[in-house]
Amino acid sequence: MSKCFGARIASISCSTSYAKGGPPRYEWKCNTSIGREDGNNDERAWREEGMKNLILYNKEECPFCWKVRLALHESQIDVRLIDSESEEQRKVWQRLTPKKTVPVLINGELIIYESNVILEYLSDVTGRLLPQDSADRIVPRLINSYSDSLIGSALKEIIFEKRERDEHNWDFNRIHAGVDAFGKALVYLSKMLGSRDFFGNDYSMAECALTARFGLAEAYGVEIPEQFSNLQSWYMRMKERPSFDATSPRKGVASPVRVNG
């Protein structure tokens, strides 16, 4: 028996309707029984009950999509993945976001189209991905932003060059510039991690963001150099978590490109 803001719920039902050309809409109804239970997690328990029948418009290799997939898995939330590159589906999800980018998360009538907003939403609903203390939340959020900006921009040069051209046509100046920028960006991350197991108090949105970036780096042949041994060990621990294999893009690993110095 579940709880709805402190009241006992005898049953929960869901009805589905379809707008023409649009995504399915879910309407949740709960039947409460007499009685009340007080507790700090009553509201969160009910909100988690509503985290069913989720839809994620997704692109496998997109790092923003991958970090959302990791966050969902680590939060123990099931989701239906829809290939955003399908011509039929593209017409659907592009009407849902002014940015015309994925990921897009659908929870009933709720539409969230920004990866970091999705992570914050999942944290609010589940109590995971961020520490409870407001001060402790700062570092995971900063690392998440750093991953999207500096790490992402460095790896973009490598990935786009290798993805868009045959190997004999690769611009190695562009690739090595990206590798060099990636190596420089790791200095800050290594300092912020130090000897800790996580960038925050526990697994957080920082781990989601960086695991996705490092995973793509590995897939495109970019290694974390030995001078950043703490980051190497951290990444190996992330790969050992069930969420890594469960959410990884289905792509082989390219030839290694080493980061110098």
TrEMBL record:
Record-linked Gene3D superfamilies: 1.20.1050.10, Glutaredoxin
GO cellular component, one term: cytoplasm
Listed CDD domains: GST_C_family (cd00299), GST_N_family (cd00570)
InterPro entries listed in its UniProt record: GLR_AS, Glutathione-S-Trfase_C-like, Glutathione-S-Trfase_C_sf, Glutathione_S-Trfase, Glutathione_S-Trfase_N, GST_Omega/HSP26, Thioredoxin-like_sf
Ranges of residues in domain GST N-terminal: 52-130
Name by which UniProt lists this protein: Glutathione S-transferase family protein
Top-level taxon of origin: Bacteria
Residues of the GST C-terminal domain: 133-257
Pfam families linked to this entry: GST_N_3
